[in-house]
Amino acid sequence: MHSVQFVPAFLVLASVIAQKLPPLRDHLLIADTGVGHRSSPVQTWQTSLRRLESDGSSTRTLFEYGNPTPQNQPIGSTSIVLDPETLSVYVATGQGIIRTEIDGSGNETVIPESATSVVLAGGRLYWGTMYDGLIKSANLDGTDVKMARNVSSGINYNIIPSYTPAISYPDGLAVVPRDFMYWSSSNSGIGQVENGTIKRISISLSKEMKYEEILVTSVNMPGQLRVVGPWLYFVEKGRYSNSPTSLKRFKIPLARNRDPVAIETIISASQFPEIFTENDKVDKLTLSIKSFAVDTENKRLWVAAESNSRIMFAKIIEMGLDGEDVKVINSDPKQIGIPVGLEYVR
Fold first, then answer.
1. Among 39, 56, 164, 199, whose Cα sits 20 to 30 Å from the Cα of 344?
2. With helix as H, strand as E and coil as C, how does the chain read?
3. Can you give the CATH number for the domain in which 123 is found?
């Protein structure tokens, strides 16, 4: 007599689901600023959170931010940061900093103001503001808002009376708890193109080094920062559509630095014109690096570059931490949007 073994129904269902679902893989999350009205007819879409595999495949839109308007104008975004503990992201949009699960669900505005950048450190959010040139911090739920640093250098009243941005504003942030807070300062004034700086200040419990320290000067619109081991990586965005753009790094000084730091270029438009140069049938455009994400375990990084002009171009570029083995893994704006923020999820 043959014996029959019964398998519980829930185990059968789990087995079927496991066979149908694709294997879990590391992936990238993109803050797509969206595309609004242009002088010539082009496709438009809303600001969104997008996902793609780390090899550039299997892209999909997880969530669209903002309420559609008759003109279908996006609310815009500038930055994204991952909270690995809760598997959620914080996206800086034109309607505030919005917390979203990495599957696109559970959206909640935690900070109701626009930000130039947003990072997470020590259980708190840190973000920069362009209008008044401040660095602020708050709990992850948006409570206990504090001013961490005023980096404005004053307010420029020579632009428009109703719009008076700070002379200097934080465009990139990196915070190491109980150590240092780093920021890149861009200047809003005309003629200040290459006057960007990278600075730091101690946030340790000791009273030592409570002054600003200038680490890098003469940067053409510095942007996102990341501390990667002993290095500080930073983006040089470039102000105009034909400005030079690059990703660079330097060894972080352990003590007060009186000598210029030695800067290394990881990738630049001048090194790879075939990647960063596009022609929109009117002008030659240099794609601007807006963000980058890092996989320290496998020693690789990805760069997001875009040209949000008459015709939109966008690329995600993969390479090693030292800039080796450069390759474009996706160059379709319909798939990756106009990427201004990039995070790696393992």
1. 199
2. CCCCCCCCHHHHHHHHHHHHCCCCCCEEEEEECCECCCCCCCCCECCEEEEEECCCCCCEEEEECCCCCCCCCCCCEEEEEEECCCCEEEEEECCEEEEEECCCCCCEEEECCCCCEEEEECCEEEEECCCCCEEEEEECCCCCCEEEEECCCCECCCCECCECCECEEEEEEEECCCCEEEEEEEECCCCCCCCEEEEEEECCCCCCCCCCEEEEEEECCEEEEEEECCEEEEEECCCCCCCCCEEEEEECCCCCCCCCCCEEEEEECCCCHHHHEEECCCCEEECEEEEEEEECCCCEEEEEEEEECCCEEEEEEEEECCCCCCEEEECCHHHHCCEEEEEEEC
3. 2.120.10.30
